[in-house]
Design goal:
The structure holds two protein chains of two kinds. Chain A is an alpha/beta fold. Chain A has 16 helices and 17 strands. Helix content of chain A is about 40%, strand content about 15%. Chain A is globular, with a radius of gyration of 22 Å. By secondary structure, chain B is mostly helical. Chain B has two domains: about 55 residues, no CATH class; about 230 residues, MetI-like (MetI-like fold). The chains are: A alpha/beta, B mainly alpha.
Chain lengths: ~425, ~300
C-alpha cells in the first residue's frame, strides 16, 4: 500500500499554531522578552515528521503534545514523494515515517541515522515479524521486501543492511497490515476463495485493480500465480522475463474487457465499489470500511494464496543530535508505549508492540480486532464512528490467521525502471 | 510620465532635457518590461528547465545532472508513445470536429437569430454559467449519470427500452469524448460568436439581393468571415485536448492513455527526466499544429 490519503495534507493548523508558540517561546528564552523563562522550558522541542499519511494522524500529535510536551509537525505525502523528500531534502524533516520498501530505497542514500537499540525501552516488545521475519517460530518468511531484511544495519555509520538483528535499527516499526481483494458479497453471487477469481469471465467488466505500478504489479503477480500461469522466483523482485509475461497477461485481460476501470486514489476505489461498477477489486482496508459505512455490504475477502502485506516505521534524520535526538528517542519510546498502538489497532491496522497496545484497548476490542472473536458490543473507531455492529467478526479472523497468511511484502524491485515502463504499456494498450 | 517630465521641463530645462533624451527611446521597452519579466520568469524559465532536465539521468529516487539522449530514445522508440500519441490525436480530432459543429451553430444562433443585444448577452452569459464551477466537478458529475446503475441506464431500463445496462456509456472512449465536448465547446463558441458579431449585416443583405440562397450566404459569406474565430477556437480546443490527462483518466477509468496521462504517470514515480522529455515532444507537436493552423488562417484580422 502506498498511500492512504484520507488524512490531512501538510502541517495542521493546530501544529502550526503550536509552532508559532514555540517560536514565541524561543524569543522569550533568548532574552528578547524577559520574565517568562518558563515558556521556553515548557515548550522546547518541535519535531517535523514527514510520512505517508497512514499514520499522520492529528490525534497522535495532540496526545504527544499533552504527554511529552513535544510539538509534532506532520506532513502527509504520497509514498513516492515521501521517498524523494527523505533522500533529497534531509534537512527538511526530523522523523521519516515511511514504509519498509521505501527504507530499502532510501537508507543507502545515507540521510537517515540508525537507532541505538539500547535506547529503545520497548525493543523487546516488538513483534518478531520485524526482528527475524517470523510471526511464530514455525512460520516461513514471505517474499518481497520483508521488513526484517532492511530493519538493521551493521553499525552506527553503516549503510549496509545486516542479516541478523544488531544494536542498530534503521526504523522502528509502527504500523502494518495485510491487504487482499475487496468484494461485494451481494453482487458476486458465489464464494470467492482465490486471487484468480478476479479473472473469472462471470465478472467480465466488473473488476478493477489499482493503477499504482509498484503495488499493482504485486496484485497482478498474486493473480498470475493463483491462476497457475507462472511461478515466480520472488514476486517482490521479478526478472525482466517475469515482468514481460505478467504485463502481457494483463494486456490480454484488459483487451478482453475484464476490467471496468483502474483506480489510483482511495476515493476512486470506494466509489467504484459502492456504485456497483465493480464487484471484486484490489482494495485497502480503510476503503472497505468506508464502503460499509454507507450501509453497502463489502468484505475484505481472505484468499487461499494469502495476503500482500505492508509495514511502516519511523526513522531518524541524520542531522538530529543533542536535545533534539533525545527528544526523538523519547517520542519513539512514547509511540511504542501503547496509546498509539491501541489507536492504530482500533483503526484496523496493527501495532508493532502489541503487548503495550493491549493495555489501551478494552477486552472486547482486543477480542474483535486481534483474536477474531465476535464483538460483544458495537465496535467504534477511535474517532467514535460506528465501525462494526455487535456480533460481527473481523474479515480474515485473528491476527495470527491474517498475518500468518502473508504471501508477499510490498517491495522495490531491481528492475524498477523497466517495471514502470512495462506498466505504462499496459495502461496504454 | 511624459506629461510630468514636460512640466518639469518648463521649470528646470537643464536636467530635464537630459531625462527626456535618455528615457524616450526606451519608453516602449519599459512598457513591455513587466510582461516580459512575467513571461520570462513564469514561462520561459520553466520551459528551459524542462528542456534541461529532459537530458538528465535518473534512478528510482534522484535525478542526476547529465547530458544523454536516453530519455528521448526511450520516448520516441517505444510503441507505447506512438500509440498514445495516436490515441490523443484521435480524441483531439473527434472533439475538435464536434465542438466546432456545436460551437458554430450555437454562435450562429446567438449572432443571427437572437435579435436584441440584451437577449444575446443574456444567453451568452448563460452559456458561461457552468464555468462558475470547477472543471473537475463538471466532469465528475457525468459519472453517476452514465454509470451502470446511473440515471440514464436506470431510466432506460424502467422505460423498457433496454434489458441490460449499457456498459459503453462510462469508462470508455465515448465517455471521454462526451466530457471533453461538454468541457470545451464554450471555447469554440466565444471566439466564433465574436467574429460573427462583427460581420457587417449589409454584406448579408447584399448577398441576398444578389440572389444567394441561405446556404450560399453561409458558405460564401459567413464561414469565410468567421475563419479567424474558428482558428482561435481551434487553437484553444486542440491545445486543451492534447494536454488533457484528468478527463481521460477519470472518464476512461484509467483504461485509455493520453500523452498527458503518460507524463503524469512518470511524474508520480519520480521519473522527472523521462516526463520532461515527453513534455518537450508534446510541446513540439502542439506548436506544429498551431503553426499549421496559423498558416491556413490569418487570425490577426481578429485582433
Amino acid at each position: 500500500m502506498t498511500k492512504k490519503n484520507e488524512t490531512k495534507g501538510g502541517v495542521s493548523r493546530r501544529s502550526l499554531l503550536k509552532g508559532a508558540a514555540a517560536v514565541g517561546g524561543l524569543a522569550a528564552g533568548s532574552g528578547v522578552i524577559t520574565g517568562f523563562p518558563t515558556i521556553w522550558a515548557q515548550n522546547p522541542i518541535t519535531l517535523r515528521q514527514v510520512g505517508t499519511g497512514v499514520s499522520n494522524i492529528n490525534a497522535i500529535a495532540e496526545k504527544c503534545k499533552a504527554d511529552l510536551g513535544i510539538t509534532l509537525q506532520m506532513t502527509a505525502l504520497d509514498s513516492d514523494a515521501a521517498a524523494q523528500r527523505t533522500v533529497t531534502q534531509p534537512d527538511s524533516y526530523d522523523i521519516a515515517d515511511v514504509e519498509y520498501w521505501i527504507c530499502k530505497k532510501v537508507f543507502p542514500a545515507g540521510t537517515l541515522q540508525p537507532m541505538d537499540v539500547s535506547k529503545l525501552k520497548y525493543f523487546d516488545k516488538i513483534v518478531p515479524l520485524f526482528i527475524n521475519g517470523k510471526l511464530t517460530p514455525e512460520s516461513t518468511i514471505a517474499q518481497g521486501t520483508a521488513p526484517h531484511t532492511v530493519g538493521f544495519v551493521e553499525g552506527k555509520d553503516s549503510k549496509t543492511f545486516a542479516k541478523e538483528p544488531t544494536n542498530w535499527m534503521t526504523m522502528v516499526p509502527t504500523i502494518y497490515n495485510a491487504d487482499t481483494l475487496g468484494i461485494r458479497p451481494d453482487l458476486v453471487g458465489r464464494d470467492i476463495t482465490t486471487w484468480a477469481d478476479i479473472m473469472d469471465p462471470a465478472f467480465k467488466g466488473k473488476t478493477s485493480i489499482l493503477n499504482i505500478p509498484s503495488i499493482g504489479i504485486m496484485d497482478a503477480a498474486m493473480i498470475m500465480e493463483a491462476m497457475g500461469n507462472i511461478t515466480y522466483g520472488d514476486k517482490g523482485n521479478m526478472t525482466k522475463e517475469e515482468l514481460d509475461k505478467t504485463i502481457a497477461f494483463l494486456i490480454e485481460a484488459k483487451k478482453a474487457g475484464q476490467f471496468r476501470a483502474f483506480w489510483k486514489s482511495f476515493d476512486e476505489s470506494v466509489n467504484l465499489m459502492s456504485s456497483g461498477e465493480v464487484v471484486i477489486q484490489s482494495m485497502w482496508s480503510p476503503a472497505v470500511a468506508a464502503v460499509r459505512s454507507k450501509g453497502i455490504p463489502c468484505v475484505y475477502q481472505p484468499l487461499k494464496e494469502g495476503y500482500r502485506a505492508w509495514g511502516g516505521g519511523l526513522g531518524l534524520a541524520k542531522h538530529l543530535d543533542g536535545a533534539q535526538l533525545d527528544a526523538a528517542y523519547e517520542y519513539i519510546n512514547w509511540y511504542m508505549s501503547g496509546w498509539v498502538g491501541g489507536y492504530l489497532n482500533r483503526q484496523g491496522y496493527y501495532s508493532a508492540c502489541l503487548d503495550t497496545a493491549k493495555e489501551y484497548m478494552s477486552a472486547d476490542e482486543w477480542g474483535f480486532w486481534m483474536e477474531g472473536k465476535p464483538a460483544e458490543k458495537d465496535i467504534m473507531s477511535p474517532e467514535g464512528k460506528l465501525m462494526e455492529k455487535a456480533g460481527s467478526v473481523r474479515d480474515g479472523g485473528s491476527y495470527l490467521q491474517r498475518l500468518g497468511g502473508i504471501a508477499c511484502w510490498n517491495s522495490v524491485m531491481d528492475e524498477d525502471r523497466y517495471m514502470v515502463r512495462k506498466w505504462n504499456e499496459f495502461i496504454a494498450a | 510620465m511624459a506629461d510630468i517630465t514636460a512640466e518639469h521641463a518648463a521649470v528646470k530645462p537643464e536636467p530635464q532635457s537630459r531625462a527626456r533624451f535618455s528615457l524616450a527611446p526606451f519608453a516602449s521597452y519599459l512598457q513591455a518590461l513587466p510582461l516580459a519579466i512575467v513571461l520570462g520568469v513564469f514561462l520561459l524559465l520553466p520551459i528551459a528547465t524542462i528542456v534541461m532536465v529532459s537530458f538528465w539521468d535518473y534512478d528510482s529516487i534522484r535525478i542526476i545532472p547529465d547530458f544523454m539522449l536516453l530519455n528521448y530514445e526511450e520516448t520516441l522508440l517505444s510503441w507505447v508513445t506512438w500509440k498514445t500519441y495516436l490515441n490523443t490525436l484521435k480524441y483531439t480530432l473527434i472533439v475538435w470536429a464536434l465542438t466546432l459543429f456545436i460551437g458554430f451553430w450555437v454562435a450562429y444562433f446567438l449572432a443571427f437569430h437572437v435579435r436584441s443585444v440584451g437577449m444575446q448577452m443574456m444567453l451568452f452569459l448563460i452559456c458561461t454559467v457552468p464555468f462558475l464551477t470547477s472543471n473537475i466537478i463538471r466532469m465528475i458529475s457525468w459519472i453517476p449519470f452514465l454509470g451502470r446503475n446511473g440515471l440514464i441506464n436506470s431510466t432506460l431500463i424502467n422505460m423498457g427500452v433496454i434489458d441490460a445496462p449499457l456498459e459503453f456509456l462510462l469508462f470508455s472512449d465515448f465517455a471521454v469524448v462526451l466530457a471533453m465536448v461538454h468541457l470545451y465547446t464554450l471555447f469554440m463558441v466565444v471566439p466564433i460568436f465574436n467574429t460573427l458579431m462583427r460581420i457587417d449585416r449589409a454584406l448579408i443583405e447584399a448577398a441576398r439581393d444578389a440572389g444567394a440562397n441561405a446556404f450560399q450566404i453561409l458558405t460564401n459569406v459567413i464561414i469565410p468571415l468567421a475563419k479567424p474565430g474558428i482558428a482561435i477556437g481551434t487553437i484553444f480546443v486542440v491545445t486543451l485536448t492534447m494536454g488533457d490527462f484528468i478527463t481521460v483518466r477519470f472518464m476512461s477509468g484509467g483504461q485509455s492513455a493520453s500523452v498527458g496521462l503518460m507524463i503524469a504517470n512518470q511524474i508520480s514515480v519520480l521519473q522527472y527526466p523521462a516526463a520532461a522529455a515527453n513534455a518537450v515532444v508534446l510541446l513540439g507537436v502542439v506548436l506544429l499544429i498551431v503553426a499549421g493552423i496559423l498558416r491556413v488562417v490569418n487570425i490577426r484580422k481578429e485582433l
